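User: When convenient, might I ask for sequence and structure tokens for a protein?

AI:
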Amino acid sequence: MADHSENFLRAVIKSLRDVVGPAVNAGDPMAQEQLALSISTLEFLQSRLPRLHARAVFELEHHLRLAKDVLAQLRGAEAAQDLAKSVEYGDQVIAVPGVDDSVLTRATAAIAADLRVLLDADIEESARARAERTIIAAMAERITFERAWYLPLGFDPSPLSAPALDDVLPVHAG
């Protein structure tokens, strides 16, 4: 069956704009503002629907790079075994062309969870510090991506310095 999500969003946006909008009390600025925010949020989601798979690919690739860097910092520590297994699974998932977004999301979540467990584990303090610095360093990539993803919403304090979404999305994820 075809995915009609974009059509549904378009219909809801049109209904809000053409039916609900005129019925909202013009003397209620908060109601007017909330309606406008609702419509712009739905339009944003509509614009991102075709790129949700690419986002899921980016998120898994980002977590894989991050986890591999952390594993390199820990050099085979016993506490890192679960993370190593999650990375192995993530590598298998990302290698499958057209893999379902839910599988990408589960693999990403597993890596993120194992990173959290690892940072709470009983590991040498200098190793933990190296892992934490690695994670913090990787956040620049994630922040850059999120700025590009959410740029159309208009909340970025420096929008001219944000990259275009096409420049940060994985090329092969389409």
In short: The two ends are 21 Å apart (CA to CA). The helical segments are 5-23, 29-48, 52-74, 81-94, 101-120, 125-150, 165-168. DSSP finds seven helices and no strands in the chain. The mean pLDDT is 92.
